[in-house]
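In this section we turn from sequence analysis to structure. A common task in structural bioinformatics is to predict how a protein folds when a small molecule is present, because the ligand can shape the pocket around it. The inputs are simple: the amino acid sequence and a SMILES string for the ligand, here adenosine-5'-triphosphate. Study the lines below before reading on.
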Amino acid sequence: MLLSVKNLRKSFPETGEILRGIDLEVEKGEIISVIGPSGGGKTTLLRCLNFLETPDSGEMTFEGETYNLSSIGKKQINGIRKRTAFVFQNFNLFANKTAVQNVMEGLLASGMGKKDARRKAEQALADVNLSDRLDYYPNQLSGGQQQRVAIARAVALDPDIIYFDEPTSALDPELTREVLDVIAALAGQSMTMIVVTHELEFARRISTKVMLMDEGIIAESAGAEKFFNSPESERTKQFLEKINS
Amino acid sequence: MSERVIRILIESFPKILLPGLKMTIPLTVFAFSLGLIIAVITALIQYYNVPLLSRAARVYIWIIRGTPLLVQLFVVFYGLPGVGIMTSPFPTAVAVFAINEGAYAAETIRAALEAVPHGQLEAGYCVGMSRGRTVRRIILPQAFRTAVPTLGNELISMVKDTSLAANITVMEMFMTTQRINAVYYEPLALYLEVGLIYLIFSTVLSRVQRVAEKKLASYGRR
Ligand SMILES: Nc1ncnc2c1ncn2[C@@H]1O[C@H](COP(=O)(O)OP(=O)(O)OP(=O)(O)O)[C@@H](O)[C@H]1O
Ligand SMILES: [Mg+2]
């Protein structure tokens, strides 16, 4: 087991309890898609897994070590973050850094030398077909290109798991395709990932497991075929019906 | 204009310009650089919300921005010797101008820091960077870029404000002009002349500012 979470809870003072006891297990090499209605807590869940939000309570086991989420310390958080990566809906590329520098930043922070970092960053960008955009700043790149840089930035860190939060929602349909292809290629290399997405066809194609998240709980969790063909929970049936109608 | 006035103007021009180059510009350069350092530290204290220091920073900015620069100069230069702290004109001027500029620029930089989207910091965390490292390499450079136009204006203001240092016996351009005027008594012509030299200084700086802004305008904006 790479990652497991038990009874994760999170509330915000303004909006109340958003995550109401999440249980989650991720095996190495698994590709989990999380779908569900807007406001269901998908983003909040990913952010809690990477401690961009502080969970209120729960338990996390990551690579054999168990942490109490209500008392986890800064050092442990940093340790976990070093082995995970995050791809944001709105990219969040470093605006003052070029594409290749964006990928290098994390490598340099981990203590890698400049030359090695540069070589690795160039390779990572080549893998997302951006060798011709190394020295472009984010605002000189299309949304799809920016998101591919962001993915290269995540992958270059050799993380044990990557969290994607709606990686294509900010993109035009034409650009969505190129980003999905890159993610599918990663899936093909058995990169472990959790992908929050509204692209159901895509989820069905790449996932080993699909989850429906609604009102702060995981309402259904099943293999892709089973999830879409014969879901068990009413919520999943309703959600799929609404989408397909 | 009489021939006498023209002759006085021509003779006095280098005499005024020289202290401009030897006093006004160094005073501005030292004070502004020092002021920027103070400002960055003060702004970061507020950005990090350091307990106590953060409040001290507010008080510092409040006092400095709420009192006239001239009063600040007088308190330090004429007031402090009264409690046994001796000061000499030029260093005093540098210190007071730096402390003054520090307060204004601190506000500029703090606002610019806060204008950097929070996602930049989060992205730093997510690639394993510490907050300090992210602030240093990602947030501060972006904030500086935002702050450059305002800081440029503050620099131009400072060049002009250095004339106040005449009041604490710094022999800068304005004081020199006053001295020359005491000899020839041509106030209109001579003060217009020194005004013109200030104008030249600020115009050059404005030009530099515009070029700098264009260069920095935005990271490779198309
Ligand atoms: N920082 C916050 N402070 C207060 N409330 C928040 C915060 N972040 C999220 N919420 C609330 O939590 C709920 C779930 O939000 P979240 O972004 O996790 O949903 P989501 O499933 O990702 O939705 P979408 O599909 O629209 O992205 C929303 O009602 C939102 O208002
Ligand atoms: Mg979301």
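The longest helix of chain B spans residues 3-47. As an exercise, try to locate the residues that line the adenosine-5'-triphosphate site and compare them with your own expectations.
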